[in-house]
Structures are given as C-alpha cells and as structure tokens.
Amino acid sequence: MYRTLSNIAIRFFSEAQIYKHGFNWSPMYRRSTAKVIEVSKDLHYVKIKIPLSWKNKNFVGSIFGGSMLSATDPIYMIQLIKILGDDYVVWDKAATIKYRRPGKETIFCEFIFSPEDIVYIKKDIKDKGEIDIVKTPNIVNKEGVVIAELSKTIYIADKDFYKKKGLQKAASK
C-alpha cells in the first residue's frame, strides 16, 4: 500500500517530501511518537525527533525505550530502498540499543549515508551478491549528550541474486 501511494505521490512531490510526510502520516510510525523533521533532497540524510509526552513516558518519567527503538527502526531500510532503487532487496536484519541515560526531554537521531557509502554498497553487492552493513547512530538530546547508542544491521542484495538464492533454498527442502 505504501509503495503504491508513493508511486502516485511522486507525480506531485519530491522523494524527500514523500519520505518525510509519508513517515509522519503513517499510523505505524506515528505510534512511535517520533517525527521526521529533516530529509535531504538525495535522501542521504534524515533527522528525527522524539518528544517526551504522555504517550511515551514510562513509569519513571522518561521516554520509554521501546519508543526510541521503534522510532529509529524503519529509517535506514526505507532510506536505502529509495536511494538504491528497485534492483536491490533491503531488509532490516538486527537492531540493538544501549541506553546511556534517561531521555527526559526531546531527543534526536540522525541517519546518514555518504555518497561513498552508496558506491561501496553497490560495488560490494556487485562482487558478492549480498552484504550486511552495520550503522551505529546515537540518540542525543539537544545539547548532543548521548541518550542511547543504536546498532542496526541491514541486509542488502542484488534482486536477481536474492531470487536465485530463494529458489535454491526451496529446491533443497
């Protein structure tokens, strides 16, 4: 459904606008209490904020850790799907979060891919067919103090390689 809506919206809006507003209007993402506040035109940079509110406040008055994790979970995957295009398969593979201090105010997280990252990913996939990459952004407050350390493992494969791999698995059963 989201891909179909995105394909229709591209006639009227930029990819960055669709990315930002698509997340912010999506019921699944809204439940995380986060908001995408900035997206670069090339989608290589995304910034989110997670305000402390009654919707995400835990028993001790700080932002519920699940809100932090759910707010950051889909960003890299969708970012790469949009940057790389339809010739690639992208999946979230793993996520870990290490809480450093309570989030008792609005917190932020930035998701960045450099042009060199994208060149490396494409080259590595061309050579190997599939790869896992690990990204490690920090969730910070407005002063830049680290609230939580995030580690995301993302699986990326050439679409043809991925299909062949799936057929091989099915044939071996």
Describe this structure in words.
The chain has 173 residues and is of the alpha+beta class. The chain is 39% helix and 30% strand. It is built from 7 helices and 7 strands, in the order H-H-H-E-E-H-H-E-E-H-E-E-E-H. Strands 1, 2, 3, 4, 5, 6 and 7 form a 7-stranded antiparallel β-sheet that branches. The mean pLDDT is 92.
Summarize the structure in short.
With 173 residues, this protein is an alpha+beta fold.
Please tag this protein with its features:
globular, alpha+beta, 173 residues, 7 strands, seven-stranded antiparallel beta sheet
Give the helix proportion (percent range). Answer: 25-40%
Q: Give the topology string: H per helix, E per strand.
A: HHHEEHHEEHEEEH
- Gyration radius, rounded: 17 Å
Distance between the termini: 32 Å
Mean pLDDT: 92
Strand-residue fraction?
25-35%
Main sheet properties: 7 strands, antiparallel
Tally of contiguous helical segments: 7
Structural class: alpha+beta
Low-confidence stretches: none
Shape: globular
* Count of extended strands: 7
Summarize the topology:
Layout: H1 2-9, H2 15-25, H3 27-30, E1 35-39, E2 45-50, H4 65-72, H5 75-84, E3 88-99, E4 107-112, H6 115-128, E5 130-135, E6 138-141, E7 146-158, H7 159-171
